[in-house]
């Protein structure tokens, strides 16, 4: 029996990569499976995506998905820079940056901050486990204060909250999920890939080797027990007919730039993801009460991207020839005059 194909004429296997060499049961592999499923269901052609990463267990994971896509694995903490450069050179490409908490928030925090404030157009996934799993379990900057590691050592420092920083610094799409919540995670990956702007998706991904003991707030058991979903999520692609049955006041509809819509079914909280102050207050409440708030945390429509700010043309820079790039004598003189 032939495998089912999507609208792009591809099977699910076409979106996969070689077998993972990460630890058995690693949450990162669940995220990989979620990316594969999301891209398959969205009918994305793999050549339209560039996957980028830095150093760490998380940065190995792009090997295991989208083997037909272009990819770039660079030095520790620097993925945002070359991801930004790739996007500016060819704005028709989708950038899928996969990083980790150590890669993004320890050595790479300067890169992370400037990517957010510039609203660089990419999906920025952080596989967050609070530890350096590749180098035997040191605490990362997202490890909870007072939490023990695999060796029984206690972390004395306050953690950095990634979504809180993302909202404060200008990312136009901020979400959090859990590698054990497949349905929510896939929905948010789809929405992030459709968003125009910097889409930050912080995914708690327990390290089965160094940070999955029950006393760790980054363990599977802790997150599962303390996970408070903000919404019941459903992603409606733009090529499908929109048929949603909901009562006034019970759902929040967010229209994405490509015409796709994210339907948020309200649960206990009357939460508006377009309210920046409410997003920050909600995150602060979660930190105070030691709960993990998951779902779409913040969304700002029509925020100018870095490409918009730089007034880049729609035509990829690679397609310009020498005649397009060489200014006339009059234009060059005008430029020199401006510099005086």
Describe this structure in words.
This protein is an alpha/beta fold. Helix content is 31%, strand content 20%. It has a single domain, classed as Rossmann fold (3-Layer(aba) Sandwich), CATH 3.40.50.970. It is built from twelve helices and 13 strands.
Give the SSE map.
Layout: H1 27-41, E1 49-53, H2 57-60, E2 70-73, H3 79-89, E3 94-100, H4 101-105, H5 109-117, E4 122-128, E5 131-132, E6 138-139, H6 162-169, E7 173-178, H7 182-194, E8 198-204, H8 220-226, E9 227-229, E10 231-236, E11 251-255, E12 261-266, H9 276-289, E13 292-299, H10 306-309, H11 322-325, H12 329-339
Helix pairs in contact: 1-7, 6-9
- On the 0 to 100 scale, the average pLDDT is 85
CATH superfamily: Thiamin diphosphate (ThDP)-binding fold, Pyr/PP domains
Find the structural class using helix and strand composition: alpha/beta
- What is the CA-CA span between the terminal residues? 71 Å
Ranges where pLDDT stays below 50 over 5 or more residues in a row are 241-249
Number of helices: 12
Number of beta-strand segments: 13
SSE run: HEHEHEHHEEEHEHEHEEEEHEHHH
CATH fold-type name: Rossmann fold
Taken together, the total number of domains comes to: 1
Annotated CATH architecture:
3-Layer(aba) Sandwich
Shape: globular
Strand % is 15-25%
Largest sheet: 8 strands, mixed
Q: What portion of residues is helical?
A: 25-40%
Adjacency order of strands in the biggest sheet: 2-1-3-4-8-7-13-9
Q: What is the radius of gyration computed over CA atoms, rounded to a whole number of angstroms? A: 21 Å
